[in-house]
């Protein structure tokens, strides 16, 4: 979700941000209530679309786990097959046995492919299946379109600039 926020900020032309501590009592709010509601709607749409990537019924919550996001997004970035042990490490917050179980489940469902390494027969290589790579490409296109739409909404809605002078002192 931080990526989404970063992309939105860049889209709005905000490239330099100072660190604002949450404990500082500056009461800074540059966006109005509707802007924030629109942001929540966008993130809900993006989250729902993430679940659509897997073509599973709504009651199947297997892929709701953020560890799958870590795994699939990192495999998408690499394009090439990686050692299974490396893919296991992509799943932050999971033990090795749990991450292995998750990867094996994705292999079983055809989302990830697995083959033996030619360099080391003891090692296995995993990669996104072609179908899963295409699904993720469509998903990222959807996310970018939603982000662009949201950025336009923000640009066209008045902001609460009553605290702008405090912001200028921080940034």
How would you sum up this structure, described in words?
This protein is mainly alpha-helical and 171 residues long. The protein has helices spanning 2-11, 33-52, 66-78, 84-90, 96-108, 130-156, 164-170; strands spanning 82-83, 112-116, 124-128. A 3-stranded antiparallel sheet has the order 1-3-2. The mean pLDDT is 83.
Give the topology, please:
Blueprint: H1 2-11, H2 33-52, H3 66-78, E1 82-83, H4 84-90, H5 96-108, E2 112-116, E3 124-128, H6 130-156, H7 164-170
Antiparallel strand pairs: 1-3, 2-3
Helix pairs in contact: 1-6, 2-6, 4-5
Estimate the global geometry from the Cα principal axes.
elongated
Average pLDDT over all residues: 83
Tally of separate helices: 7
Strand content bin: 5-15%
Global structural class: mainly alpha
**Number of extended strands:** 3
Sequence of strands across the biggest β-sheet: 1-3-2
> Biggest sheet, open or closed, and with what strands and sense?
3 strands, antiparallel
């Amino acid at each position: 979700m931080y990526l989404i926020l970063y992309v939105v900020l860049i889209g709005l032309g905000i490239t330099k941000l100072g660190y604002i501590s949450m404990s500082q009592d500056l009461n800074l709010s540059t966006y109005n209530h509707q802007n924030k509601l629109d942001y929540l709607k966008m993130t809900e749409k993006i989250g729902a679309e993430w679940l659509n990537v897997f073509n599973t019924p709504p009651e199947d919550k297997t892929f709701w786990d953020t560890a799958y996001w870590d795994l699939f997004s990192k495999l998408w970035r690499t394009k090439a097959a990686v050692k299974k042990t490396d893919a296991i490490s992509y799943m932050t917050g999971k033990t090795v046995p749990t991450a292995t179980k998750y990867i094996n489940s994705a292999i079983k469902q055809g989302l990830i492919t697995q083959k033996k390494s030619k360099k080391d027969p003891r090692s296995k290589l995993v990669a996104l299946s072609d179908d899963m790579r295409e699904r993720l490409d469509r998903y990222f296109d959807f996310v970018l379109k939603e982000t662009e739409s949201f950025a336009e909404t923000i640009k066209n809605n008045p902001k609460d600039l009553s605290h702008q002078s405090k912001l200028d002192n921080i940034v």
